[in-house]
Fold each of these.
Amino acid sequence: MAPPLLHLRDIALTFGGTPLLTSAELQVGEGDRIGLVGRNGSGKSTLLKIAAGLVEADHGERFVQPGRTIRYLPQEPDLSAYATVLDYASGGLAPGDDPYRAQYLLDVLGLTGREAPAQLSGGEKRRAALARTLAPEPDILLLDEPTNHLDLPAIEWLESELASMRSAIVLISHDRRFLADLTRATVWIDRGIARRLDKGFAHFEAWRDEVFEQEERDQQKLAQKIKREEHWMTYGVTARRKRNMRRVRELADLRAQKKDHRGPQGTVKLTVGEMEVSGKRVIEARGISKDYGSGPVVKDFSLRILRGDRVGLVGANGAGKTTLLKLLTGELQPDSGEVILGSGLTMVTMDQSRETLKDEDTVAEVLTGSGGDTVMLPDGPRHVVSYMKDFLFAPEQARTPVAALSGGERGRLMLARALARSSNLLVLDEPTNDLDLETLDLLQEMLSDYPGTVLLVSHDRDFLDRVATSTVFAEGGGLWREYAGGYSDMVAQRGEGVSARKGAGDAGSARPAAAKEKPAEERAKKKSRMSFTQQHQLKTLPKEIEKLGKEIGKLQGELEDQTLYARDPKRFDALMAKLTELQTKLAAAEDTWLELEMLAEEEAAD
């Protein structure tokens, strides 16, 4: 068996009196593809820094084969010592490396190399650091969240680039699809210990659940053994003193073992405050356009969102996803066209930049809004510390300022605040940023059970597949198109993914050929024309709906008489039966009108 390129053995590290790593091990061989997973705060990034030689462990050994090269991608790169981004990206090259590769990588990642580091955003710094890390093609790549701040085209390009490299890779990511596609082994950091599975991330969750189940069985056996020993101590026949003292020590050891056992970390409890049901039509955009002067961001776009829909917005950075989101929610007015918001909407928004969090505010102040100790939830007031625990915050963090929180903690805090409010429309702009896999699972479950409507911007392909009922995709040149289903469904319908997006140019040629060539079923559907009866219904149904609404209003007005039932119970029963009948007819008429209106729009688009 060949010796490992990198080996960390029995690594221990303590921060602030709390053990972070107790007996961690990481072994990297030639060509390995390892996913490093675990809860936020479990020590993944710290272990990667120890592997890179940037942090020294309190205890343990680090071995690197002589002559082997390691490159590490940090979450927060420092470019301050370099005049240009190209200088920084080329700074990691060694003699014999391709001098042009750094520029090539910068071009692919959307940078020219001439930028001054001080002028870069956080996302641009991360892309520059990615170019610097990949440019030398080292023996070992240590990547900490490489997909952060990348859009879908860049994520798919990076996935392909890493798959083609000969380097061994150790990867931390919260992107399930990225992990599943790239890894062939998984190292799980849990309660300070590193467990290894010699299979990719796709097999991790089933294995993790088996570990927890076996651990629970072991704890039950331990509890039974302690109970037997305690019974012996109390009722057993006295034996030789030496033997008795041995049993006493063994019982003490068993009790200490049970006391010191750290169970699995708590799980986030995600619930969302529900408001009254909104109208059936939540948002309707009719021919909306927006242009900031450098070409259309949105061009002649129409969309109808009904109650219960979960619509994902997808596209490259700069395609206009946030602009479209603001247009659809009424925060931004279109240059032409109109957006009609349905009745009874109560909207809660979570933005991607976390800008609505003030650095000087404490966790408690963000959640209570007043600096008190009570969070007002839809089902009643609750103590802020109790609510914080649902989102994995320790009680002592109540007075912690936002500035001291990690990216994952900020994400959980934004979720905690957003989900505490009553709503029937959730608007989520990159909600998955910095969330660990378990929290993503629970967020996905919550959104699936949410009775209202969801608008979602995300670059997480797996999350979109799990949540979205339809996907609105930026085709280029300001053109947007809705596809049924999640991200994978969109790719199947287009015949290509986001990575194949055309540049913004002539609007007619910007739409990819695959978008023009619709599946056979869809083409057949388009050929069918509305019958004369359907056209007549489309014209007459609005008047019928209006008439039914007026009749229902009259009945409801008569039923508001609180003395009616006592005076004339038969009349009351007859009115209630009539009201139920009319409401059923109204719902059926509205459904028919919506179906015919959608069919008419499809024909108009032909």
Amino acid sequence: MNHVIIGTAGHVDHGKTCLIKALTGIDTDRLAEEKKRGITIELGFASLKLPDGTVAGIVDVPGHERFIRNMLAGAGGIDIAMLIVAADEGVMPQTREHLSILSLLNIPRGIIVITKCDTVEPDWVELVKDDIKEAVSGTFLEGADMVAVSAFTGMGLDELKAKLMELAAHSGGKDLSRPFRLPADRVFTLGGFGTVITGTLIEGTLKEGDEITLYPSGLSTRARSIQVHSKDVKEAYGGQRVAVNLAGIKREDIERGEVIAAPGSMVPSMMADVYLSCLKEGMRDIKTGSRVHLYHGAREILSKVILMDREVLHPGESCYAQLRLEESFAAKRGDRFVVRFYSPVETVGGGEILDPCPLKHRRGDKKALSVMEIKHKGDKKEIVSALISEHSRFWTPVSEIAVLASFTLEETKEQAGALEKEGKAVMIGRDICLDMEYVKKIRRQAVSTLSAYHKANPLRGGMKREELRSRLLADIKISDMDSLINYFISSGSLKEQAGLVSLSSFKVEAGEKLRKLMEEISAIYKKAGYTPPATDDVIAQSGSKQASQVLEAMVASGALVRLDAQINMDAGLYGEAKEKALSIIDQKGQVTLGEFRDALGTSRKYAVALLESFDKARITKMKGEGRIRA
């Protein structure tokens, strides 16, 4: 079933609330102050059963200019707008401002309702229609149906319901495949239940018991119970007015404008990249650095406007801008917003959010402007590519890129995979995708680092992984950095031998003096047999400052086998020891430490070191008191 929200708009005292009561039987003015003054102050809600059985939610908004902020809190989730104009007054200032707001919010469709038609002559209604046509010219309501009604006599109400049914049938509906999201436009405490919030579920499906995160505060809760149109339900769908009883949340912990959403589905921020439009019919410019009231969802936040390519945005103009907020908020790419002048508070513009959590830009930055244009007009692959490029230096997970792009994780992974096939990105592990230009930059750093290391240590086979990681990107997760090093190795830039990483072209080359030192050290180990001297003693005995490098080179080349930090052994002797151990195992079924020690004619210390080395190499393994083949 298609779920839709119908929202009223129009000047104060033009009969919005009376019309809703005539259509639904529900009086949306619930406050004593509203009844006393005869005007709507807060948002009101009702449900309307249309002729085809569709149940639409209705949001009744205040018409008085002093309560525009309340009007904006309820306008965000509207699918169908009813612009209401009283026949006895015609188009008034708030009619025009509400129409501008609806246009800025990109409300897709609507209908014009002329109320109080029982109070004027039919000819006058025709004059009012002409007045309205002129007012809506160039807006989304140009050419929209007009219905003349009377809430008191019932005139035109059936026609209005039929027209609303047609509009609802052609409404695209909300995207139920997205994570659920609901901006709270009312928060209250209900005796015996606790904290309840209401709002329009603007996308996704919310089920009873679902885990919830409050954005931007980050508090966690769950949906204890759910109501739609005052009836308990197990789940609610995008496009419905919903009341949610939140578990474990105090009334003072949440306020209007907080968004309840699926955990991990949003990223709080204090900036937003936007495409900003200044009202064509407005009388004010928007200057860079101006403070404005930002209205997004049900939230109002003070913000500074930074125009990216100009000093002043004149009425009717649009440009890319960055909003720098005075409080944190949570939004998604593609969301609409409205801005009102700081003082006097009047609507001056609005537009579309391109990046809800951007980097800070310098004015006039051509690259930033180019990326903004991609986020505004690009296809999915271009948008994902732009975000990966911007966030590679932070190693931002693909799951977070999906949130910033407002795509599903599957869509984002698909685009990241396509970029990798095209050689424009590299997947690192399961959830990191790095831009190829960034990868090339790190590869250049790795090559430079290893080149300098090889020059300083010509006899060492390379650098240990942990040292290379720390020199390149010490703050990156070890497993992720290892994946990048593995990519460099698989792509031929680097190689790894005996746990040492080097340039693929590097070879250990020793001069005559060092070759002689190698021969001397080799002779020491051959002569020592199965009781080799400690590494520090060999270095001291050689009398050469380069003995340590020579030992590293001999281990890397395989001439020596390192058993631990202070025990190296001639590779030939190591091989013979291995064969003796395996021979004993084949004869007796296992080899004990004592048998192995006696067979080699060495001490317990070296026998233990050898057997543990065999275990690490998976040649043998422990079983009871002895060892068997692995």
